[in-house]
Write a structure and sequence with these properties.
Number of strands: 3
Number of domains: 2
CATH architecture of the largest domain: Up-down Bundle
Structural class: mainly alpha
Shape: elongated
Largest sheet: 3 strands, mixed
Strand content: 5-15%
Helix content: over 70%
CATH class of the largest domain: Mainly Alpha
CATH topology of the largest domain: Alpha-lytic protease prodomain-like
CATH superfamily of the largest domain: Cation efflux protein transmembrane domain
Distance between the termini: 31 Å
């Protein structure tokens, strides 16, 4: 049974709505973190504020890409516009990498020229407030991203989590600098945070590139496909006494949508209408088992193979 919170997420916390909220939250955190930097002079807090500007740009671009991804298929894009979400994730990955390099530059400069910090209580308080906002929104976005299988939403959620890591790391660095008087700990925290978000940005960029190259559906969905095909094979055997064969199963993921193509081998003496009935039942079962999946099945007589299968072998 689906958890009530997930049902609520699926009904009204859509990717577009959450990305609009993300834009508002990013603007609020920019104000809070820039104010925290202004009152303390902390390069760690400055790096944190720069990351929030990246959040704003990333969320805005993600909203644009999700809007494009929801356009229906047309003559120029017969398979739809779903892959636009991967451009969003890749763009956010590049922004994160760029921000991390900028943070390293500023931190190294402060490391070479350390300076005492002022009014840390205010600075830390403002930073923690923005962290709570980002953390809460990221948690909701992750749950919605799993429900909608939205790469753009997941990318923005991961981006927000890097902001949370940044803020926590900066606050720890400030606390240690204040307790020890070693003000170089502040830029050190900035460098450590930059390396962390550089890693997250690289992972996000890699995942986006895999999506653009027609990555297969995830293992959990592949298991669901196997279960449906096994059930359909048993149903045909029980009702007709005939063993049919499903093979050449190919899948690809495009944003929140999946595509399944496969072959159904039936006895050569079946009528086309009879074979088409079982094809339709199987396609309907696949699309019912896995939301937002399009299934296409090609009918072949038993023992027959396509030219591609003959040349390359049946690919599972």
């Amino acid at each position: 049974m689906r958890h009530p919170a997930l049902s609520l997420t699926a009904s009204w916390l859509t990717p577009r709505s959450l990305l609009r909220i993300s834009i508002v939250v990013a603007a609020c955190t920019i104000v809070l973190k820039m104010l925290a930097w202004w009152v303390t002079g902390s390069v760690g807090l400055l790096s944190d504020a720069l990351e929030s500007f990246v959040n704003l740009a990333g969320a805005t671009f993600a909203l644009a890409m999700v809007t494009i991804a929801q356009r229906p298929a047309d003559e120029d894009h017969p398979y739809g516009h779903h892959k636009a979400e991967y451009f969003s994730a890749g763009f956010e990955g590049l922004l994160i990498i760029g921000a991390s390099l900028a943070i390293v530059w500023v931190s190294v400069n402060r490391w070479l020229h350390p300076a005492p910090l002022e009014r840390l209580d205010w600075g830390v308080g403002l930073s923690l407030l923005s962290t709570v906002l980002n953390g809460a929104l990221a948690w909701v976005m992750f749950r919605s991203a799993r429900s909608y299988r939205s790469m753009a939403l997941e990318g923005d959620a991961r981006h927000l989590m890097t902001d949370v890591y940044t803020s926590v790391g900066v606050v720890i660095g400030l606390g240690l600098a204040h307790l020890t008087g070693w003000w170089w700990l502040d830029p050190l925290a900035g460098v450590m945070v930059a390396l962390n978000i550089l890693w997250h940005g690289s992972v996000m960029l890699w995942r986006a590139s895999q999506g653009l190259m027609d990555i297969a559906m995830d293992p959990e969905q592949l298991q669901q496909i196997d279960a449906v095909l096994h059930a359909q094979t048993q149903a045909v055997l029980a009702q007709t006494g005939v063993q049919v064969l499903f093979d050449s199963v190919h899948t690809r993921q495009a944003g929140g949508h999946g595509f399944v193509d496969l072959h159904l081998h039936v006895p050569g003496d079946w009528t086309l209408a009879h074979a088409a009935q079982w094809r339709q039942r199987t396609e309907a079962a696949l699309m019912a088992a896995i939301p937002r999946v399009q299934a296409r099945i090609e009918l072949l007589p038993q023992g027959a193979a396509t030219v591609l299968e003959t040349e390359m072998g049946t690919i599972r």
